[in-house]
Structure formats: structure tokens, C-alpha cells
Amino acid sequence: MLRKQEGELITEFPVDPAQIALALAAKVTFDTGLLGRNTLLVRQDGVKKTIVEYRPPQKTGIFLDDAEVALRVPLPGLVMIRVTASDKAPQYGVYAVKRRPETLDAPLFHAPLPNVFGSGAICWGTVERVTDDALRRVSLVPDWSMLLGSPFGNHACSGKSRSHPQDIRARLVALEAQKAKRYPLSDLIPIKKTLAHLLGETT
Fold first, then answer.
1. Which domain holds residue 190?
2. Is residue 34 scored above 60 in pLDDT?
3. Measuring CA to CA, how many Å separate 148 from each of 33, 115, 178, 182, 183?
């Protein structure tokens, strides 16, 4: 109950606790800076929460649309950014990196994956999103599973590879045929932005 007093007049009325929490949260700012392990950064600015997580280079099963068997291909190091605010849908960005970022000035590259736009935003299509409970956690493991565990279509396939500029899927197929152990970093295409750019810390 919220109580207001004006002179001798006292008024009481019910309020939604969630609205009070939002009002209080809007005044709270929290920023870890760069962290260790795979979680690089957690930032809370009012109701807006940003998490940046690193995924080390590793072989990954990638399902392309209409394929019964997953490609087993090496992917470079990847960085995922997830931004949530109140009850709005989470916003994502996925980028490739040549090494684990040690500063916010680390250069970013286009992720060598279909369904990831030039901006880094993900084309989820009909993929089921992570649960509300998962969105409250700092770990992005469920988000990575949703992205990499779902079939990739033919959207946003160009501009991801120097050797296969028209279709990154052809590059992934070639890597599996070569039984490649590592993604060739010289094949990555820079986006000419850093984490600092994306996090609004520089112009």
C-alpha cells in the first residue's frame, strides 16, 4: 500500500510491487568491467542489463537446413552480447574474434555463420528463445545452445568469408571436407568496430 498525506488528509491505495521494483532499478547502475573466464562483462544500467560472453575456438556441429547430419567444423572464437530491458525481447549480437578480448578495444569480425546479419544481429526465424529464467542468469550457455543447436537457413550468408564471399555455408562445407582443425583467422572479415563501439563507450 502506498500512503500519501496532504495536511490532515491521508490517502492509501494499492500499487504493483513490480512497478516499484522497476522504478527503483531505474536508478541503479552496475558495471563489472572485463571479467575472467568466458563471461567478459556484466553491466546493469537501470532496467537495462548487458552481458558479454566469449566462446573459445572449437569444433562445432552445425546443422544446415534440410541436412540430416551436422557438419563438424572448427569455429573461431566468438563473442555474444545480450541486452535485456524490463519485459522487452532480448537483443543479441554475435561476432568473431581472433583471440579472447583483453580490452574493450579488441577488434571484431563477422561471425562465419549463416543467419547472422552484418550488424551482428541474429535472424532467429522460428527458433524458440531461451526461457525467462535463463534470461535472469549471467551465463549465456542456453543462448549459445539455441543459436548453434538450431538449423541454419539461407539468410545473411554473404560477406562472411574472404575465400567464399557469396556464401559462408560453402566455406563451412569446405572446412569439413578438409578435416580442418582450426578456422583460418585470415579468412575473417573485420566489421571495423570494437566492443567499446558496440557498448557505446566511444564514438
1. 30-198
2. no
3. 27, 11, 21, 17, 16
